């Protein structure tokens, strides 16, 4: 039974039925006892009233048809009977007693005076029938009201679950794109926290979908430019007749393909590090060794620019991380530093321990980022105006620091931008060490 309504009805109606049966049984038993006590009292009063009378004329006892009055003299001679009966008690037991005569039991009360013995008797069968009738009359109203109570219980359960049914209809009528909050007016206290949590989830989903839509729109916009440029370069290559011009156009086309390839790779890396995407399990990694390997991947770009990548890494700094994610972080920091530094410059990379943390620092000698702009430097596709940066920077995708921010957040690292001693930008990423507080 999975329905809350069915469970409530079954539980409440079962409890109601049990309560009615118990109350009916108790009421029936009490009514029987009270009726028995009333009949005994009636026997006593009749006998005591006859004790103080003188001679009793025939019919003078005025006994009820259910009662039989007998009087004996002190020597045992029967001197009076209120009515004839084929089987009357022939002996008297003083006080209340049950007397068996043949197949019939009599309830008797007898009292003695100096001259006679008075007995009032009543058949037990009549007493039990009258007592049962009285008990049923006491129980009957309770049995009659039980169905009314059951209907009231059903109505109350239906009314109490109405907010849930209304909420269910509201959710069922929604389309897949509706992320508006669910109404919480008139909800019971037990349901309101659930609806509040659902609304918070819908709000987070809405924010995530908005971010994804913005990401797709920005990515489409960013891809359009290099693809258009590639198309123009292909057309230009087809029109070139001079070998030197053809070689130059071919080199420009190859550079355009490289830029488009890098942009696509950065988009894929950024998507893999988005919140909510499936992430690999983190494991202990040597941060210095990992950064050294990432810088080796950037060596080609450094050679092309005539620049130098200098690494100072302390050994044995183990952090909890994802190898691919941390490699992407280090490589993007190195690539950004190389692209924003003048050709032939030196990019200094350091991995050192500070307290209970491993600190990755990347310094370049480029134009840097003014402090007012640093807060938005981690936004996707953000680039400074070309007037404030070199051509290489102007041709960037604006995704490098966004990728770094996504990876750092996933690893619980603190990321900050500062002014480098080399005159450019310093990027500092602080990772908690494995096993450290």
UniProtKB/TrEMBL annotation:
<dbReference type="InterPro" id="IPR004358">
    <property type="entry name" value="Sig_transdc_His_kin-like_C"/>
</dbReference>
<keyword id="KW-0418">Kinase</keyword>
<keyword id="KW-1133">Transmembrane helix</keyword>
<keyword id="KW-0597">Phosphoprotein</keyword>
<protein>
    <recommendedName>
        <fullName>histidine kinase</fullName>
        <ecNumber>2.7.13.3</ecNumber>
    </recommendedName>
</protein>
<dbReference type="Pfam" id="PF00512">
    <property type="entry name" value="HisKA"/>
</dbReference>
<feature type="domain" description="HAMP">
    <location>
        <begin position="158"/>
        <end position="210"/>
    </location>
</feature>
<dbReference type="InterPro" id="IPR050428">
    <property type="entry name" value="TCS_sensor_his_kinase"/>
</dbReference>
<feature type="domain" description="Histidine kinase">
    <location>
        <begin position="218"/>
        <end position="435"/>
    </location>
</feature>
<keyword id="KW-0067">ATP-binding</keyword>
<dbReference type="InterPro" id="IPR036890">
    <property type="entry name" value="HATPase_C_sf"/>
</dbReference>
<dbReference type="InterPro" id="IPR003594">
    <property type="entry name" value="HATPase_dom"/>
</dbReference>
<feature type="transmembrane region" description="Helical">
    <location>
        <begin position="134"/>
        <end position="157"/>
    </location>
</feature>
<dbReference type="InterPro" id="IPR036097">
    <property type="entry name" value="HisK_dim/P_sf"/>
</dbReference>
<keyword id="KW-0902">Two-component regulatory system</keyword>
<dbReference type="InterPro" id="IPR003660">
    <property type="entry name" value="HAMP_dom"/>
</dbReference>
<keyword id="KW-0547">Nucleotide-binding</keyword>
<dbReference type="InterPro" id="IPR003661">
    <property type="entry name" value="HisK_dim/P_dom"/>
</dbReference>
<dbReference type="InterPro" id="IPR005467">
    <property type="entry name" value="His_kinase_dom"/>
</dbReference>
<keyword id="KW-0812">Transmembrane</keyword>
<keyword id="KW-0472">Membrane</keyword>
<dbReference type="Pfam" id="PF02518">
    <property type="entry name" value="HATPase_c"/>
</dbReference>
<dbReference type="GO" id="GO:0005524">
    <property type="term" value="F:ATP binding"/>
</dbReference>
<keyword id="KW-0808">Transferase</keyword>
